[in-house]
Design brief:
The complex is a heterodimer of chains A (about 240) and B (about 375).
Chain A lengths: L4 E14 L2 E14 L3 E5 L6 H8 L7 E6 L2 E2 L5 H11 E4 L11 H11 L4 H14 L15 H13 L5 E5 L7 H18 L2 E6 L2 H4 L4 E6 L2 E7 L8
Parallel strand pairs in A: 3-8, 3-9, 6-7, 7-8
Antiparallel strand pairs in A: 1-2, 1-4, 4-5, 9-10
Chain B lengths: L1 H14 L1 H40 L2 E5 L25 E11 L5 E8 L21 E5 H7 L6 E7 L5 E12 L10 E5 H8 L7 E3 L12 E5 H44 L1 H9 L4 H37 L1 E2 L14 E2 L5 H23 L7 H6 L4
Helix pairs in contact in B: 1-7, 2-5, 2-7, 2-8, 5-8, 7-8
Classes of the chains: A alpha/beta (about 240), B alpha+beta (about 375).
């Protein structure tokens, strides 16, 4: 049975104005992702990893080329449709967690569901389920400033996963974590990938992350240098 | 919208001191606006009541030649009104000069029916002393002329032919009123006496009416409705309100400027948060809405804080009144020595609407830029 293709990038180029000139962050990228992948965009700073992630997350649009995410052409989406896509089907994890500081852990996780107008009872159940995935039920009523880095990133995972998105985009999720916490986070994400079949796409240059990936796309200067699929690679501990 | 309010509430409470400073400034503006307008409304209501009780009754009918603002019309602005309502009180005004302790004070000599019940003037005290010309005067007049009850003083007047005559009058009573036009420069004597003194039997300058409806007036008499008589007072209060509005609007402007600055700073400092909201699925305009609601919620908090802290103060002021020095009562319009502010529902609603609407507009202006924000830059906190 063919695995469902959920992202297709065709000849995607992204250029940014830079004073009088332009900086080309991505050059004619052709790429596809399938359901359930645990893939990573790897490369040095400035190679275009985050730009590619932002386009797939409908936070940005390509200058030329076509990006189709879950059947929707990113460049053609209205702000509202784009927000709807992010709210329903895309999850984000950021390097600095980006938790909302005045909300508790529970409220941070609940936020996306509030935007979906989910009924209160169902919402509560779903939030606690997500907190349970990341082992933070006990900290549900703590504010983000009372959490450690690892706990903060686990809240971010719960927040991204609570709506059971089809795709989770993680931008350098372990960059601010120590090795132990980084492995814990990655194991959590891998488990969720296995259990929920969510597609995980990372942008990283962290060796620890690469150890978990099933597919690594090497980027350099906005171009795909190598797209390798890793089979039966044991998890690095 | 409900979500925006919930989020705004949490964000504001979470912002701590910054929130309470803005709320404090707005609450102060709320108090000042409420206080000034309540004071002027209270003054207006008291002045209207006093003017009706002491001077205007349910309305007046003036002789066609009489103009209270033109003293020259007093000489000829009088007549006999045969069809006058039986319960109307005739008042005859004549120019006269008083000579207390050798000084000379020009006065209006007003004759009024001793048995009248329409006005609060204590005309019954005419009977207090069995003197030939009993007179009552107001407290201000008494202070100016240095007269007390029981004093006799020389009065000079002109009769119907313009001939000067003079006699001693006896002050039988000094009354206290908030209406200066029945007090300052005015001497009240029985109208029968004034008719005798001037030879103007049955003449009146104006009639004070018992009932509000316009009587069938002869062409010689013009009906002055109560509201028309009070129009000047309303105008003065209105102009005073406009004057005080400059002050409190200035204060409100300062409060709104603080709010504007807060919003500008919020958009700048909370870029990552804005980016996160967008990444989590809010549209940019939803984020604009959230920040605008936050701004207007400052004003709602201010209403609550202002209401809770201000309520006992305003109740106290409304009950105890505010004392005004005697000098401020010489404006020429009715003003009590103690004004009781009135904080009516319409005033409170107006003040709340003014502050909430202006705060909402001021909150919206700086956050419009969120709609143009690139979420990627916002997430990186790169927007300058």
């Amino acid at each position: 049975m063919a695995i469902e293709e959920i992202i297709r990038l065709s000849e995607v180029t992204k250029r940014y104005p830079m004073g009088e000139t332009e900086f080309t962050a991505l050059k004619n990228i052709n790429l596809a992702f399938h359901k359930g992948e645990f893939a990573g965009l790897v490369g040095p700073s400035g190679s275009g990893k985050t730009t590619l992630l932002n386009i797939m997350g409908s936070l940005d649009v390509p200058t030329t080329g076509e990006a189709v995410v879950l059947g929707q052409h990113i460049s053609k989406l209205s702000h509202k449709a784009s927000a709807e896509l992010r709210n329903r089907h895309l999850g984000f994890i950021f390097q600095v967690f980006n938790l909302l500081p005045v909300y508790t852990v529970y409220e941070n996780v609940e936020f996306a569901l509030l935007l979906q107008n989910m009924p209160a009872q169902e919402r509560k159940k779903t939030v606690y389920e997500a907190l349970d995935w990341v082992g933070l039920t006990a900290l549900a009523h703590k504010k983000p400033d009372k959490l450690s880095g690892g706990e903060g990133q686990r809240v971010a995972i719960a927040r991204a996963m609570v709506k059971r998105p089809a795709i989770l985009l993680a931008d350098e999720p372990t960059a601010n974590l120590d090795a132990a916490n980084a492995h814990l986070i990655l194991q959590t994400m891998k488990r969720l990938n296995d259990e929920l079949k969510t597609t995980f796409i990372f942008s990283t240059h962290d060796e620890k992350v690469m150890g978990y990936l099933g597919r690594i796309i090497h980027l350099r200067d906005g171009c795909i240098e190598l797209d390798e699929t890793i089979k039966n690679k044991p998890l690095q501990r | 919208m409900k979500l925006a309010f919930q989020m705004a509430y949490k964000n504001l409470i979470g912002a701590g001191l910054r929130t309470w400073l803005n709320v404090g400034v707005l609450a102060f503006a709320f108090w000042v606006i409420l206080f000034y307008n309540g004071l002027l409304d209270g003054w207006n209501q008291q002045a209207r009541r006093a003017s009706i009780a002491w001077e205007y009754g349910a309305g007046q009918a003036w002789h066609k030649d009489y103009d209270p603002l033109d003293p020259f019309t007093i000489q000829d602005g009088h007549g006999i009104w045969k069809e006058a309502p039986s319960d109307a009180v005739p008042v005859l005004i004549r120019s006269a000069v008083l000579y207390p302790q050798g000084r000379m004070i020009p006065v209006s000599l007003a004759g009024i029916v001793q048995s009248q019940k329409i006005l609060a003037l204590p005309t019954a005290t005419f009977l207090k002393n069995q003197t030939e010309i009993p007179a009552i005067i107001g407290r201000r007049m008494a202070e100016n002329a240095k007269l007390r009850a029981g004093d006799q003083v020389l009065l000079r007047w002109r009769d119907q032919y313009g001939t000067f005559d003079a006699a001693n009058i006896t002050i039988t009573g000094v009354f206290k009123t908030d209406v200066p036009t029945v007090d300052q420069g005015k001497i009240w004597i029985p109208i029968e006496q004034l008719w005798k003194m001037t030879g103007l039997k049955d003449h009146a300058t104006y009639y004070v009416l018992q009932h509000a409806e316009s009587p069938k007036t002869a062409t010689e008499w013009k009906y002055m409705a109560q509201e028309k008589l009070l129009a000047d007072l309303d105008e003065i209060i209105k102009s005073k309100k406009a004057g005080s509005a400059i002050m409190y609007l200035l204060l409100l402007a300062i409060a709104l400027l603080a709010l504007f600055d807060t919003q500008v700073l919020s958009v700048f400092r909370r870029q990552r948060e804005i980016g996160t909201y967008i990444a989590l699925g809010m549209t940019r305009w939803q984020v604009v809405g959230l920040f605008t609601v936050e701004g207007s919620m400052y004003s709602l908090f201010a209403m609550v804080v202002g209401g809770v802290l201000g309520f006992p103060i305003f109740v106290f002021l409304a009950k105890q009144g505010i004392a005004f020095p005697a000098s401020s009562q010489d404006f020429g319009i009715a003003m009590a020595d103690r004004v009781f502010p009135v904080f009516g529902p319409s005033l409170i609603a107006f003040t709340i609407a003014l502050i909430v609407i202006s705060a909402t507009i001021v909150s919206f202006l700086p956050v419009r830029r969120i709609a143009r924000m690139n979420p990627v830059d916002a997430l990186k906190g790169k927007i300058t």
